[in-house]
């Protein structure tokens, strides 16, 4: 992953680029977000692409679910949860596997707010302290608890993109509580009118914020990393969303991980090329440890080869 780490203009830390609706709610307009070249300085450059493992937890069990089907209950149109795989191994066992293989920065996602899922997530964090990020129901009241339980970062979407709109006060509150360096923004998105709209509430609700250069640059001032699921292809093993990967590779100024559609080893190379070596990758349902055909050990070997390219 290649990133030019810079100090950015303080103007980007204001509410510049948003229009107030009411109270503390804002919608994105981003008319002129750019940092002054006079106020930036190069700190470091690092290159390489990494495999970021995942542990998705639903009702206390490690599962692989088609995310776009995840709802609180069966819908009136007859749609229901589509589960690709359910493991007989615990979340902590997967955490230990990733620890043994030296995989850092994977994510534990609680696909529900039930106590069993929370307990399983905490067990995984205890098994690999500092090695995993955690998301799912994170808010200003519980974020620090998960950091104290061993999470390297907390991952947030719906709390910040509340009711389809950006709530900057909530985002700033999270930064005050855990710090920018402990916060990952989940910017998972779906295509809408030819653009990528951030989706929330189990990926069912479109926000009014679309991924582009200015949005990514603005949000980078409040997060250490981005996590982006290509929801239209996630969990379906239909191939990656190269257009989305390319957008992230071109415009994300901080580390970003893409998830969605990886099926074969060549997809990892396609992400590397499309993302210009700047986008990390998560693989879920396709892995043999999650019931798929792609050997986990082959992906780990690929990851190890990428590490030799780090400078």
UniProtKB/TrEMBL annotation:
Its EC number is 5.3.1.16. It comes from Salix viminalis. The keyword Heme does not apply. PANTHER family: 1-(5-PHOSPHORIBOSYL)-5-[(5-PHOSPHORIBOSYLAMINO)METHYLIDENEAMINO] IMIDAZOLE-4-CARBOXAMIDE ISOMERASE. It catalyses: 1-(5-phospho-beta-D-ribosyl)-5-[(5-phospho-beta-D-ribosylamino)methylideneamino]imidazole-4-carboxamide = 5-[(5-phospho-1-deoxy-D-ribulos-1-ylimino)methylamino]-1-(5-phospho-beta-D-ribosyl)imidazole-4-carboxamide. This is 1-(5-phosphoribosyl)-5-[(5-phosphoribosylamino)methylideneamino] imidazole-4-carboxamide isomerase HISN3, chloroplastic. Its cofactor is Na(+). One of its GO terms (cellular component) is chloroplast. Its main location: plastid. Pathway: Amino-acid biosynthesis; L-histidine biosynthesis; L-histidine from 5-phospho-alpha-D-ribose 1-diphosphate: step 4/9. InterPro entries: Aldolase_TIM (IPR013785), His6/HISN3 (IPR011858), His_biosynth (IPR006062), Isoase_HisA-like (IPR044524), RibuloseP-bd_barrel (IPR011060).
């Amino acid at each position: 992953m290649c990133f030019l780490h810079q100090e950015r203009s303080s103007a980007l830390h204001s509410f510049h680029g948003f229009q107030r609706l009411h109270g503390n709610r804002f919608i994105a307009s981003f008319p002129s977000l750019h940092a002054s070249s006079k106020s930036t300085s190069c700190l470091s450059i690092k290159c390489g692409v990494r495999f970021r493992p995942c542990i998705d937890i639903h009702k206390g069990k490690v599962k692989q679910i088609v995310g776009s089907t995840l709802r609180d209950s069966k819908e009136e149109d007859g749609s229901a949860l589509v589960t690709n795989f359910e493991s007989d191994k615990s979340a902590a066992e997967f955490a230990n596997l990733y620890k043994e293989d030296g995989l850092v920065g994977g994510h534990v996602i609680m696909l529900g707010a039930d106590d069993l899922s929370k307990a399983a997530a905490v067990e995984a964090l205890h098994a690999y302290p500092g090695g995993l990020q955690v998301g799912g129901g994170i808010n200003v009241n519980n974020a620090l608890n998960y950091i104290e339980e061993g999470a390297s970062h907390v991952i947030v979407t719906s709390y910040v993109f509340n009711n389809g709109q950006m709530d900057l006060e909530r985002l700033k509150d999270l930064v005050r509580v855990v710090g920018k360096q402990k916060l990952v923004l989940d910017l998972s998105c779906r295509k809408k009118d030819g653009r990528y709209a951030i989706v929330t509430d189990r990926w069912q609700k479109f926000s009014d914020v679309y991924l582009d250069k200015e949005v990514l640059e603005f949000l980078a001032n409040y997060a250490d990393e981005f996590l982006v699921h290509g929801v239209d292809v996630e969990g379906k093993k239909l191939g990656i969303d190269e257009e989305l990967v390319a957008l992230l590779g071109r415009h994300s100024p901080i580390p970003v991980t893409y998830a969605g559609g990886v099926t074969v080893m060549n997809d990892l190379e396609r992400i590397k090329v499309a993302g210009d070596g700047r986008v990390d990758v998560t693989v879920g349902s396709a892995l043999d440890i999650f019931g798929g055909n792609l050997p986990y050990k082959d992906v780990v070997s690929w990851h190890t080869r990428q590490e030799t390219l780090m400078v």
